[in-house]
Amino acid sequence: MDQRSILTGVFEGRRLTEKEAAFLLREGDILALGFTANAIREKIFEDPDTVTFIIDRNINYTNICTSKCRFCAFYRDKSDPEAYLLTKDEVFEKIEETLELEGTQIMMQGGLHPDLKIDYYEDLFRSIKERYPITIHSLGAPEVAYVADISDISIDEALKRLKDAGLDSLPGAGAEILVDHYRKDVSPNKVSAKRWLDVMERAHILGIESTATMMMGGPETVEDRVEHMSKIRQLQDKTGGFRAFISWTYQPGYTELGGKTVSSREYLKTLAVARIFFDNIKHIQGSWVTQGKEIGQLSLAFGADDLGSIMIEENVVRATGVAYAMSKEEMVRLITATGKKAARRNTVYEVIERF
Which of 2, 141, 169, 339 would you call most buried, defined as having the most Cβ atoms within 10 angstroms of its Cβ? Predict the structure, then answer.
């Protein structure tokens, strides 16, 4: 294969194949990939110099989880003295703090709690919507599937009831790598790749849009990453329901899985290939939360158009010993220092403030 002819063809509108993507991940020149990814980003956006971010809060409403994924340092058994379930008042207090900080979205994510059936979430979401003007971008596909199972209802019914109660959209949580031999090793109690995709497809059909994610740096191969991206691209061809793709790096601290952290070079290379590969997903997010602020800045030269959240609160990555956070002002400085223009957005990528 020839890198130059591949990248030229893609820039001119040809779709990158899976074999070509694997070749670029293995042998591609990182600067050439970054240049091409950035050129594609500039071609897509009317105002390519604008980089967006959102103010939101991750509310980890419980750490009790039956999944027990080997890459996770956050979960606890129900009997563990550190296990918790936030009260409604505690959730409300976190939302009020979020609104005071100009937040527009909450991302409620927790474990697969064996006692929390569909009525729990319906009551919680309705209570939130009755009180606060905030977007509920919450519950990953594994949580939706688990709630449906323990409530003895279908995925469709669960999604319809959650939407009626106030759920606005789904984060891409729980995707990790959508290849079953990987999932059997790393998260054997979590939904299969097919079921993750099925939840997302049904959500999209019901008008519940979502994001898609990929956790890189576990025991997956390059081919596994490409298969993961290919499955997401195929579903996007079918539904158009993914707003953004977010790749982030596994953090091995305090986890059963262990291992080493992916290099920033590999992260940036994969980010660039994602921008080149996803000709049907507009937004590609840079992950400063796991990579750090400086690499977050560099991601803007490798195809990213968005830097996600300032992270008012985040506990899952923090449990591995990695903790980054920033203020709105620091996020603006981070973006403008790269020569870009910063803009605050909402969940559906509408700009609500420019700097």
Answer: 141
Residue 302 covered by a domain? yes
Task: Retrieve residue 274's tokens.
Answer: 């994602």
List pLDDT tens digits, range 19-31.
999 999 999 999 9
Is the separation of the CB atoms in 66 and 189 below 8 Å? yes
Residue numbers of the domain that contains 53: 16-354
Tokens of 2: 């020839």
Q: Which two tokens stand for residue 98?
A: 């979020």
Q: pTM here?
A: 0.91
Phi, psi of 212 (to 5 degrees): -125, 140
DSSP character string of 127-150? HHHHH---EEB---HHHHHHHHHH
H or E stretch covering 181:
helix 180-186
Specify the CATH number for the domain of residue 200. Answer: 3.20.20.70
| Domains held by the chain: number | 1
pLDDT at 73: 60
**What contacts 170, CB < 8 A, 6 or more positions away?**
137, 138, 139, 140, 141, 144, 199, 200, 203, 208, 209, 210, 211
SS3 label, residue 203: helix
